Amino acid sequence: MIAWQVHRPGPVTGHPLRQVSMSVPEPGPGELLLRVRACAVCRTDLHLAEGDLPPIRPDVVPGHEVVGEVSGLGEGVTGFKAGERVGVAWLRHTDGTCRYCRRGAENLCPDSRYTGWHADGGYAEFCVAPADFVYRLPDRYDDVHVAPLLCAGIIGFRALRRADLPPGGRLGLYGFGASAHLAAQVAIAQGATVHVLTRSKAAQRLALDLGAASAGDAAAAPPEPLDAAILFAPVGDLVPVALSALDRGGTLAIAGIHLTDIPVLRYEDHLFYERTLRSVTANTREDGRDFLTVAQEHPLRVSVTPYPLARADEALVDLAADRVNGAAVLVT
Question: So what does this thing catalyse (predicted)?
Answer without folding.
Answer: a primary alcohol + NAD(+) = an aldehyde + NADH + H(+); a secondary alcohol + NAD(+) = a ketone + NADH + H(+)
